[in-house]
Design a protein that fits this description.
The structure is a single chain. With about 100 residues, the protein is α+β, with helices and mostly antiparallel strands. The chain has one domain: Alpha-Beta Plaits (2-Layer Sandwich), CATH 3.30.70. About 30% of the residues lie in helices and about 25% in strands. The protein contains 3 helices and 4 strands, in the order βαββαβα. It has a 4-stranded antiparallel beta sheet, with helices on both faces. The longest helix is centred in the C-terminal third of the chain and has 10 residues.
């Protein structure tokens, strides 16, 4: 499995039901309002197309592969998101 960051901009009229069901099925973790983290099989393009099928044609979607060992930092994100990043990307760096 590959780690991905999935983000979108859902334009009006907004309907999140199908998208939220998809994220739940993928066991995705919410990083921010429209940003999710997930471990999935497939390419970024394949995942983008699946997400696209749950949104409107004019919505913005970006899928980015996250590499093991990559540097990251967060502030005010859900604890579940920080835990996901620590478990799948790299342990959080503590300030000295």
């Amino acid at each position: 499995m590959t780690s991905f960051l999935i983000t979108y901009d859902n334009k009006p009229p907004r309907n999140y039901t199908a998208l939220y069901q998809l994220m739940a099925a993928w066991n995705a973790v919410r990083l921010a309002d429209s940003v999710w983290l997930a471990n999935l099989n497939g390419s970024a393009a394949q995942i983008r197309d699946i997400v696209r099928s749950q949104l409107q044609a004019d919505d913005v979607i970006a899928v980015l592969e996250l590499k093991q060992g990559a540097d990251w930092a967060t502030r005010n994100v859900p604890a579940t998101a920080s835990a996901w990043l620590s478990a799948h990307i790299a342990p959080a760096q503590k300030a000295a």
